[in-house]
Design a protein that fits this description.
The chain is mostly helical. Helix content is about 80%, strand content about 0%.
C-alpha cells in the first residue's frame, strides 16, 4: 500500500509542477534571461568603466607631459583636459595647472584656478577645502583679511584635515589686519597644540613670541 501512496504522491507533485510551469513558466524564463543578461551587462559595464578610466588617466598624464615644452604649454593642455574630464579628474588637472602658474610667479592666476575648484560642487569637499586653503594662501599678503578669514573659518574646525594650516593663515591675516593680540593668541594656541605638525608648532611659537613683544 505504501508504494501506491508514494506513486500517487509523485503524480500529484508532477501535476503541480506542470501546472506551475504552464502558469508561470514564461515569467520564470524571462526572469532567468534578465538575470543572465544583467550579469553579462554588469560585467561589460565594469570592463567599459575600467577602460574609460585608463583612457582618462592616460589623457591626464599626456597633458602633464606637455610641461616639458614649457609651463605655458602645460597649463594650456591641462585646461583643455579639464574642460572634458569628469569633476574629480578635472580637479586634479587644475591643481597641476595652478602649480605650474605658481612656478611662473603668477599667484593671482593660480588663485583663480583654485577658486574654480573650490566653487565646483561636483568636486569632493575635502579637495574643495584644499583649493580654498591654497587660494587664500596666494592672497594672504594682498587679499582682504576679513574676507579671507571668513573663507578659512570652516577649515579651522576640529574635523577639518586642513585645520592647522588654516589656523596659521588666520593668525597671519589677523596680524595683517593689525590685531596683534589676536594673532599672538592664535599662534600660541598652535604652538601648544600637540597634534599640530612640528613645523607649524615651531613657526607658531616664534611668531607668538614676536607678536608678544611690545
Amino acid at each position: 500500500m505504501s508504494d501506491i501512496f508514494r506513486e500517487v504522491d509523485e503524480d500529484l507533485r508532477r501535476d503541480r509542477a506542470e501546472h506551475v510551469f504552464k502558469t508561470y513558466g514564461a515569467y520564470m524564463i524571462a526572469a532567468a534571461v534578465v538575470l543572465v543578461a544583467g550579469t553579462g551587462g554588469y560585467t561589460a559595464w565594469r570592463s567599459w568603466q575600467q577602460s574609460k578610466q585608463q583612457q582618462t588617466t592616460f589623457a591626464l598624464v599626456t597633458a602633464i607631459a606637455q610641461t616639458a615644452q614649457g609651463p605655458e604649454k602645460g597649463v594650456e593642455a591641462l585646461a583643455a583636459y579639464a574642460g572634458t574630464a569628469d569633476a574629480r579628474m578635472a580637479a586634479l588637472a587644475q591643481f597641476n595647472a595652478a602649480a605650474l602658474l605658481l612656478r611662473q610667479n603668477k599667484p593671482d592666476e593660480a588663485a583663480t584656478v583654485y577658486d574654480g575648484i573650490a566653487g565646483n560642487g561636483a568636486v569632493d569637499p575635502v579637495y574643495r577645502d584644499l583649493a580654498t586653503l591654497l587660494g587664500a594662501m596666494q592672497r594672504v599678503e594682498s587679499g582682504d583679511p576679513a574676507q579671507l578669514t571668513a573663507k578659512l573659518q570652516p577649515l579651522t574646525a576640529e574635523t577639518s584635515p586642513w585645520r592647522f594650516t588654516a589656523r596659521e593663515l588666520t593668525a597671519l591675516l589677523a596680524a595683517r589686519a593689525g590685531d596683534k593680540d589676536k594673532a599672538r593668541g592664535l599662534f600660541q594656541q598652535l604652538a601648544d597644540d600637540q597634534q599640530a605638525p612640528g613645523g607649524v608648532r615651531s613657526r607658531a611659537a616664534d611668531l607668538a613670541s614676536l607678536y608678544g613683544k611690545t
